[in-house]
Amino acid sequence: MSNNFYLYNTLTRTKELFKPINPDRVGIYVCGPTVYGDAHLGHARPGVTYDVLFRLFKHLGYKVRYVRNITDVGHLENDADEGEDKIAKKARLEQLEPMEVAQFYTLRYHDAMRKLNTLPPSIEPHASGHIIEQIEVVKKIFDAGYAYESNGSVYFDVQKYNQDHKYGVLSGRSIEDQISNTRELDGQSDKHSPLDFALWKKASAEHIMRWPSPWSDGFPGWHLECSAMSEKYLGKEFDIHGGGMDLMFPHHECEIAQNTASRGTSGVHYWMHNNMITIEGKKMGKSYGNFITLDELFSGSHPKLQQAYSPMTVRFFILQAHYRSPLDFSNESLQAAEKGLKRLMQAAKDQLNLPVQESAPAVAEIATIKSHIYEALLDDLNTPIAVSELFNLVTIVNKIKDKAVEINADDKATINALFEDIVKGVLGLEDDRAEGSSEDMINGLVQMVIDARVAAKANKDWATSDKIRDALKAIGIQIKDTKDGAEWSYIE
């Protein structure tokens, strides 16, 4: 089976055979959150997407350095170069220190990612901890001739850079179109052009977060941190840079310009962008009243939610769509994901005790399913195809369990490896129904009722047996009689 991994490169807009710079190690940099509020549904998708990428590379035998940053300074309210720092604003409103806000929401983000069963990154640098490195990048851009100082702030000269290179290579936006669609805004008079972006901002008198620099007491621009920290931890050139599609422009476009100006190379070999999550066809946002935090999702406390959804249900829901496709949230889609996950987790338990017949011939379909699962994952991380193949495997597990199909020891080992290595290992799916949970209690009660029915049948008390069967069916539980007693499942 080939381990060739084909990855869609946003920069070239083609699917390319992945060739790491270092054959033994993969370097991945992913833009993490700005920590001024609770993690929301939009954070879940990149969290899960790049976690699966990280897990897959490790499964394929690579050493991986996965770097995911924390933005705790420099991200202004309008995502450009004006307005108040988002964390400083939160600190002012709540009468806290900015780093107190950053720490509080960083820990809450970590807790949400842990619940989603994402592995921690290899390194998680904070922007505020790398001010010196960011200042050094600005100096290099100055030396290359693509930066200028204006009233204590430093800006990147986009038009001058575009004369020597090309600004817009990632997003496909020409600078001419950008100029025609951009108007001069209030507060941007320090810039030579409204296209220019801040590398360093002079702090106003009331600005809390500030550091000394050769130009002023101030703070770095939002785009600068990723250029500085990716080079520090992954080198001037590294394999993969990931993030949400909303970061492609201007954030990642500005990174490429900064990298080229300061390093002489754009630095990234493969750009990877996950698409957005919408809610009932609308962009998620507080103004739409559909902004759902992960805590609200897990508790069911948001008015748009019909119920609570477990973290594993959310993870499974995300994996059912390709990472480059839009993903629309609805209660119906989450409920379908919950139902599918239960089937998969039940099969994961059942396969552990499947009977083996040493004389049974190999079941060709099992090997085919394995091949298709790996082909899907190695084809630009096609998790929905991999999941559909896993449900083909679930069907086989159920047939073996019902003794409609016999397997030998090799087949059982293959099935076990697929559940262990792919379901649990690469996709990161686990049964998150804790021992002693309400669902475990319900399962125990149902089993007690079924045992009572088995006893009634043994005593030829057909009336009681039928009454129990009909009562369970009425609440969505079906019973299947076996020679060893009875089994039950939810009616689909």
Task: Describe the structure in your own words.
- By secondary structure, this protein is of the alpha/beta class.
- The chain has three domains: 6-274, HUPs (Rossmann fold, 3-Layer(aba) Sandwich); 278-426, Anticodon-binding domain of a subclass of class I aminoacyl-tRNA synthetases (Four Helix Bundle (Hemerythrin (Met), subunit A)); 438-490, no CATH class.
- The chain has helices at 41-59, 86-94, 98-115, 131-144, 158-164, 175-180, 224-234, 248-263, 294-299, 311-319, 331-350, 364-377, 383-401, 409-426, 438-458, 462-474, and strands at 6-9, 14-17, 25-30, 63-68, 147-150, 153-156, 197-202, 218-220, 238-244, 268-274, 277-279, 282-283, 327-329, 477-482, 485-490.
- Strands 4-3-9-10 form a four-stranded parallel sheet, with helices on both faces.
- A hairpin with a 2-residue loop joins β14 (477-482) and β15 (485-490).
- α2 (86-94) packs across α3, α10 (311-319) packs across α11 and α12 (364-377) packs antiparallel against α13.
- The longest helix is centred in the last third of the chain and has 21 residues, at 438-458.
- It is elongated.
What attributes does this structure have?
492 residues; alpha/beta; Rossmann fold; Four Helix Bundle (Hemerythrin (Met), subunit A); 3 domains; four-stranded parallel β-sheet; four-stranded antiparallel β-sheet; 15 strands; elongated
